[in-house]
Specification:
Blueprint: E1 3-8, H1 13-23, E2 31-38, E3 40-47, H2 50-57, E4 66-72, E5 87-88, E6 94-102, H3 105-114, H4 124-139, H5 143-153, E7 156-164, E8 167-176, E9 181-184, E10 189-192, E11 204-207, E12 212-217, E13 220-225, E14 230-231, E15 236-237, H6 253-259, H7 261-269, E16 273-274, E17 279-280, H8 289-293, E18 298-302, H9 304-321, E19 325-329, H10 330-333, E20 345-350, H11 356-367, E21 371-376, H12 382-386, E22 389-392, H13 405-425, H14 430-451, H15 454-464, E23 469-474, H16 478-493, E24 496-501, E25 518-522, H17 529-541, E26 545-551, H18 557-560, E27 563-567, H19 576-593
Parallel strand pairs: 18-19, 18-20, 20-21, 21-22, 23-24, 23-25, 25-26, 26-27
Antiparallel strand pairs: 1-4, 1-10, 2-3, 2-4, 5-6, 6-7, 7-8, 8-12, 9-10, 9-11, 11-15, 12-13, 13-14, 16-17
Bound molecules: 6-O-phosphono-alpha-D-glucopyranose (G6P).
């Protein structure tokens, strides 16, 4: 979703900003723009990629030590040059970039139109900067004060940065609901939607909190609230390495991230699990651990791939901990007046930690007295900070829009949480607990083994690259994997795909099956093995083209399948971490063969910071 980069300091601002915008490309966007100050406040913006903006900048005087840049993911107004950010104020003395939605923009716009303001775009953002300028001239106050007053009247979510023609050393930023990080260098400051554009310059950052305004002026950073209360900035030290956000020899981030999974799962387990001593500890779950153990039920809120991880967790918590679990789409949960009682337990799962619906679901649950456990990948993210306790997945930055390593790391953390709770509750035998610890430790090498099948999977991809539909079927723990496999294919190859519980197929999708229809069965050896064998027969009988993911050594299902992918044997509850890998690779190769932009699929955003 929209990306923000701003810079003030001794470097060439346009270089820092364009490079930063490229680092943010992974968030998903449809246009890009930049404002620079060299006597004039110049705004350049273009529909399309950052490279299109670069082309448009050729031959322009870009000499400036201050600037703001933006990648836009359209919400109000179609993606075009005019609606792209930055936006000027009425006098063209101010420019703004914005991520989020100003919900009361139409009433603000009406008042401003009555006062004679003219707007060139259809965006809510342009209304905000006109509003700020209007307040400044009516109150004869500083820009800082006008921004603050405006924000007290704005309804909605925002991360904004504003610069002014009148002041070549001033950047004003603010946030509510959308992320914003301030990087502190030596005599220079950076602002960005996340730390990726910043880390090559400094590892010292301040995460702005909701309702806070950051003012960088004459080489100093001040922070205050929209209520005008000064705040002391808390400086975090980033631990992220630059290589972690570069492709490292792979053609795409997605492929790199798929291949990183043995490492990301190990990183997630490191220091937390030791099967020899039977030690399993999550440092982030302490004070509230008993709330989980004594919970009457657990609600899991998430979106997209994280929601699929939540479904796997439901199976684990119910099996091992005997606690009823409800897995909710955050966007539905927050608007359907859910029954939440004081002390209820909510687990929020989010790779980015910034998904607006998940954050709002947390706020709702908290307001009713629920205890929130966050499972996030991005350290310091809004959801991590809004949670009472939680565990990071430590998968490292995930840049490919289609989530891969974050999913397996989420499953790793969720399985550890369920085992800790089950042990404390006494709902798991010591033997089973120990078996699962040993098994968890072997997952990285089993994933490694599956990755060796890359070439085989590529061949399967070649056979089916022109398919128009796909069906993914699984049962039990492999049902969420079927959903995830279908989602991966849709996201990056634009082939229509459905994931379904294999038995439920008879109640609808079976009507779609003919000799053209590829049907991917995730049919590893588990408690529903015999049942899924029957489902495969049902598809075969209707001439569907069967691709099966099976456990090594299976000699039955291969006879019924056109293509077989063998994965190592794994305990049923941990199988999703392994059985999802071939599906990630299959969608990746199909998308590449179809010429799709794998890392930045159309219309999708990595971090969905608007509802
Ligand atoms: C977007 C991303 C998905 C992700 C979902 C939830 O749709 O493209 O990959 O699963 O948001 O994001 P989160 O960061 O909350 O896990």
């Amino acid at each position: 979703m929209c990306g923000i980069v701003a810079y003030v300091g001794h470097r060439d601002a346009s270089e820092v900003i364009i490079k930063g915008l490229k680092r943010l490309e992974y968030r998903g966007y449809d246009s890009a723009g930049i404002a620079l100050l060299n006597g004039e406040l110049n705004v350049y913006k273009k529909k399309g990629k950052v490279s299109d903006l670069e082309d448009a900048l050729k031959g322009k005087n870009l000499d400036s030590h201050i600037g703001i840049g933006h990648t836009r993911w359209a919400t109000h107004g179609e993606p075009n040059d005019v609606n792209a950010h930055p936006h000027y104020s009425s006098s063209k003395k101010l420019a703004i970039i914005h991520n989020g939605i100003i919900e009361n923009y139409s009433s603000l716009k009406k008042d401003l139109l009555n006062k004679g303001h003219k707007f060139s775009s259809e965006t809510d953002t342009e209304v905000l900067i006109h509003f700020i300028e209007d307040i400044q001239s009516n109150n004869d106050c500083t820009l800082e004060e006008a921004v603050r007053l405006a924000l007290t009247q704005v309804i909605g979510a925002y991360a904004i940065v504003i610069m002014s023609k009148e002041d070549p050393n001033l950047l004003i930023a603010a946030r509510k609901g959308s992320p914003l990080v301030v990087g502190i260098g030596k005599d220079e400051f950076f602002m960005a939607s996340d730390a990726t554009p910043i880390i090559e310059y400094t590892n010292e950052v301040v995460y702005l909190n909701d309702q806070e305004i950051a003012i960088v002026n004459d080489g100093k950073l001040r922070i205050k609230t929209t209520e005008d209360v000064p705040m002391t900035p808390y400086i975090h030290k980033l631990e992220m390495e630059l290589e972690a956000i570069e492709k490292g020899g792979f053609d795409h981030f997605m492929l790199k991230e798929i291949f990183e999974q043995p490492k990301s799962i190990s990183d997630c387990l490191r220091g937390r699990l030791d099967s020899k001593s039977g030690r399993l500890v999550l440092g982030g779950i302490r004070e509230y651990a008993n709330k989980l153990v004594n919970a009457d039920r657990i609600m899991i809120v998430a979106c997209g791939t994280s929601w699929h991880a939540g479904l796997v967790a439901e199976y684990m918590f119910e099996e091992f901990c005997r606690i009823p679990v409800e897995v909710e789409y955050a966007s539905e949960f927050r608007y359907r007046n859910p029954v939440i009682r004081e002390g209820d337990v909510v687990i929020a799962i989010s790779q980015s930690g910034e998904t607006a619906d998940t954050l709002a679901a947390i706020d709702l649950a908290k307001s009713k007295g629920a205890i929130i456990f966050g499972v996030c990948n991005v350290v310091g993210s809004s959801i991590a900070r809004a949670s009472h306790e939680g565990s990071y997945t430590h998968a490292g930055p995930e840049i490919g829009v289609a989530s891969t390593k974050a999913f397996t790391a989420q499953l790793t953390v969720l399985s550890m949480i369920s085992l800790i709770v089950a042990q404390k509750k006494g709902t798991i035998t010591e033997r089973k607990f120990h078996e699962l610890l040993v098994e968890l430790e072997t997952i990285p090498e089993k994933v490694e083994q599956v990755l060796k099948l890359n070439d085989t999977i590529k061949e399967i991809a070649w056979t089916f690259k022109d398919a128009t539909n796909f069906l993914y079927l699984g049962r039990g723990y492999n049902f969420p994997v079927a959903l995830e496999g279908a989602l991966k294919l849709k996201e990056i190859s634009y082939i229509h795909a459905e994931g379904y519980p294999a038995a439920e197929m008879k109640h609808g999708p079976i009507a779609l099956i003919d000799q053209e229809m590829p049907v991917v069965f995730i049919a590893t050896r588990d408690s529903s093995y015999e049942k899924i064998v029957s489902n495969i027969q049902e598809v075969k009988a209707r001439k569907g083209r069967v691709i099966s993911v099976v456990t090594e050594g299976d000699d039955l299902i291969p006879k019924m399948s056109e293509f077989v992918i063998e994965v190592p044997a794994v305990q049923e509850s941990l199988m999703p971490m392994v059985s999802v890998i071939p599906l990630q690779l299959l969608s990746y190769h199909i998308a590449v063969m179809r010429g799709c932009n794998v890392d930045q699929p159309r219309n999708l955003a990595k971090s969905v910071t608007v509802e």
